Amino acid sequence: MNNFMKNAVLLAAFLAAPLALPQEKGHLNVKTVVQKEEITVSEAGERETRLVAPDTVVPGDSVIYTITFANISDESAENVVITNPVPENLTYIEGSAFGPGTVIEFSVDGGQSYGAGDKLTVPDNGGSRAAKAEDYTHLRWVMQNELAAGSQGVASFRAVLN
């Protein structure tokens, strides 16, 4: 398989990865978009960075997952939790998770349990060690307040293709 085909397979794999899942089904409309940064330089030498749909992603490239969620019910949504797996073949980039009004938690066990990144451990040589960004399997954003009817929120994270 040539490099173009390998890259196309990797691109398809992470674009087809599971999307963010809302805790309250039926009340939230959730959309996940995957983009990468494109840097252009104008004739005047000014650099501009913009987010674009990734045509090709090669190992070492980073992508940005942006999850938007909207309360489509007529009532406020309580206990809103947005969960997103870190797709296979990608590694979460430390410190890149973002979500205003949320507490961001991580999982290292396939989404079975969550906690603050600095509190997680993973098995290591018969013992355990502090979890690192490359150990994270899922991210979870826990809203601290109700999401009013018609309101929306955003969460995001970056990952690099292995």
What are the salient characteristics of this protein?
162 residues, four-stranded antiparallel β-sheet, disordered N terminus
Q: How would a textbook summarize the main sheet? A: 5 strands, antiparallel
Strand tally: 11
The percent range for strand residues is 35-45%
> What is the overall number of helices?
1
Give the mean pLDDT: 86
Kindly report the spatial arrangement of strands forming the biggest sheet: 3-2-4-11-6
State the CATH architecture.
Sandwich
Assign the CATH superfamily: Mu homology domain, subdomain B
Which topology does CATH recognise? Immunoglobulin-like
Number of domains: 1
- The radius of gyration over CA amounts to 18 Å
**Low-pLDDT residue spans:** 1-18
Structural class: mainly beta
Shape: flat
Helix content: under 10%
How far do the termini sit from each other? 18 Å
The top level CATH class name: Mainly Beta
**H/E series, N to C?**
HEEEEEEEEEEE
